[in-house]
Mitochondrial 2-oxoglutarate/malate carrier protein
Amino acid sequence: MSNDAAKPEVVSAKAKSAPNAIKFLFGGLSGMGATMVVQPLDLVKTRMQISGVGGGKKEYRNSFHCIQQIVSREGPLALYKGISAALLRQATYTTGRLGMYTYLNDLYKERFDRNPNVVDSMAMGTIAGACGAFIGTPAEVALVRMTSDGRLPIAERRNYTNVANALTRITREEGLTALWRGSLPTVGRAMVVNMTQLASYSQFKKYFHEGPLQMNEGIKLHFCASMLSGLLTTMTSMPLDIAKTRIQNMKTVDGKPEYRGTADVLLRVARQEGVFALWKGFTPYYCRLGPHTVLTFILLEQMNQGYNKYVLGADTSSGL
């Protein structure tokens, strides 16, 4: 009798987890919080990726020169140009991808009663990335244009005042479909990023926790796993990121777009600027992605742990 009476309690404990809406909310908030810190690096990355288009003269020698030029020409606040679009991007893209990944991760553990392996984590990361990227493409288009606008001659600038103005004008001047311009490389990049970032984060975290180092659960563990995850993600996703940036920033002249698609961008960059130009802006990209990954996962883990402890009354985390 005592064993039978205990069964409902076990089932109840297993079912006690954060609602999906909370998981999606925490995913978005963690990404937005991280973006407030790293936005200047994202702007520098975008400017460097556009610099030297078509084999022309490079505008910036390195990341520090780029920052110096932006501050001297446009003022220090210019480093936060496009912040409204960046926050909207996180509210859509990151909410979708981290919420979906957390949901799939918890569903997997509940169904198979074990942690997912590398292949499983990569599959879940890919699905989560594709979903989030498609939802977030309009904000991505606005972000790329707003962050790159300052490098253009005054007569050629779009001068979007904020993300709402950007989305409205793009729709009015170029059509609704222009909001999803570059969606293919955006979704492709997101699939690579999430497959690498989310899966490798889970595996690095597991290794540091259960391997020779035996790190305890906490910020130190999250930091180490995030930095290594960010490095792998930077190396694998940069070519698609530069294709995404060039396509979303391009202008149509006499009805003819500058690039025909992702493959055209990659081939022309490699031919005109060199193969290594596909990794142009590597330093600001990693310096942005690394800390952003760290901050996003740390914030996400802390919010999950806080919710579990103070709302659900449990000490274990349902995070990644």
